[in-house]
Amino acid sequence: MNYVKKSVADAPLRGKKVLLRCDFNVPLKNGVIGDDTRIRAALETIRFILREGGSVIACSHLGRPKGQVVPEMSLKPVAERLGELLGLPVQMAPDCVGAGTEAMAKALQPGQVLLLENLRFHKEEEKNDPDFAKALASLADLYVSDAFGTVHRAHASTAGVADYLPAYCGFLIAAELKALGGAVEDPVRPLVAVLGGAKVADKLAVIDHLLDKADTLLIGGGMSYTFTKALGGQIGSSLLDEEKLDYVRKMMDKAKAKGVKLLLPVDSLISTAISGGEEPRVVPDGQIPDGWMGLDIGPETRKLFASEIEKAGTVIWNGPMGVFEEPAFAGGTMAVAAAMAACKGTTVIGGGDSVSAVQKAGLADKISHISTGGGASLEFLEGKELPGIACLPDA
Ligand code: AMP
């Protein structure tokens, strides 16, 4: 997949109306926005378009209204907040298609911003209905995609509209593609991938793909016990995906054949329950007694993983090393976060729980790139073609 796309920076914007797909899927309660990070993240592209003499028709989904008009999922509070942040009024459309919206889009002048109502109030959005995509496209002259969190979805506003308008990526997507694409396709070596989390099934395709790309693969978290079991170890009542035992054996064989260093935990912090169990203790990997479960990587594993991370040219991390929500089992994940922060190479975090871990540790500003899209970045790391990226012309 080519990850250098035609950018909004090179688009002819003067006097043009730009349909801008944003990710304004903010936490909302009783009309109050709990966190405006995603709105702030859109400002750079919006300001650029306005400065270059264009006007912005912003659109987004919010929540899961499933094709119904759900007033609590209206984007009106976002229009207000966006206006405050931009320092200019943001007009709110009555819908995202239809006569009223068309009239507002038509009247829009350079330098002005219009926000369309929640795209998912129409079931045609998630179905990528061509007529709906055409109706969205008819509002504008150009399409700019800047919602990385939804590029793994083939929806009308994330993929379909690109069939009907000249398409470009915004600054957010460009940065994501540069960081993730660079780390996987053109990394400074050694490339170390750190994978964790609960479910091995969710990460199989990532492991498979990264074995083609990485020099070293570090596997921790609940998913590591399926590997330990496959090697004949005792894992007590730790997480196990019995059906995937053969697959993980295949992955270990693949690592050997490719000369990839695949490291599993050498020790585990165990207890009898996630909370309120026996006093946690450390055991060597593969020696977890019945009734006990591995809930974090142990101290030797933390040292081992940290030494691999610290000497990496590039590190990609996805998934916690243990049940990090419980302070007793957060140490391994925090050790990886600290090692990432100390690494002099390029460090990339692929969304989700690992992001909250580095934020909790106060280390977010020491990471080269933190992805804004959990699901999207995971599919990127699987080497999958993402519909919202594939639809954009290459630079
Ligand atoms: P995932 O969504 O697959 O990335 O998994 C994230 C979840 O994995 C977090 O909620 C962690 O608490 C959980 N997790 C990580 N390690 C373990 C473990 N050893 N046992 C049980 N759950 C774990």
Present the secondary structure layout:
Layout: E1 17-21, E2 28-29, E3 32-33, H1 37-41, H2 43-51, E4 55-59, H3 76-86, E5 90-92, H4 99-107, E6 113-115, H5 123-126, H6 130-137, E7 142-145, E8 167-169, H7 171-185, E9 191-195, H8 200-211, E10 216-219, H9 224-230, E11 234-235, H10 245-258, E12 261-263, E13 267-271, E14 281-284, E15 287-288, E16 293-297, H11 299-310, E17 314-318, H12 331-342, E18 346-349, H13 353-360, E19 369-370, H14 374-381, H15 387-390
Parallel strand pairs: 1-4, 1-7, 4-6, 5-6, 7-8, 9-10, 9-17, 10-12, 11-15, 17-18, 18-19
Antiparallel strand pairs: 2-3, 13-14, 13-16
Structure summarized in a few sentences:
With 395 residues, the protein is α/β, with parallel strands linked by helices. 35% of the residues lie in helices and 17% in strands.
Description:
- This protein is an alpha/beta fold.
- The chain is 35% helix and 17% strand.
- It has 15 helices and 19 strands.
- Helix 8 (200-211) packs parallel to helix 10, helix 9 packs across helix 10 and helix 11 (299-310) runs parallel beside helix 12.
- The longest helix has 15 residues, at 171-185.
- It is elongated and about 70 Å long.
- The mean pLDDT is 96.
- Adenosine monophosphate binds at residues 197-199, 202, 221-222, 239, 294-295, 319-320, 322-325, 352-353.
Structure characteristics:
395 residues; single chain; 6-stranded parallel beta sheet; 35% helix; binds adenosine monophosphate; Rossmann fold; 15 helices; 19 strands; alpha/beta
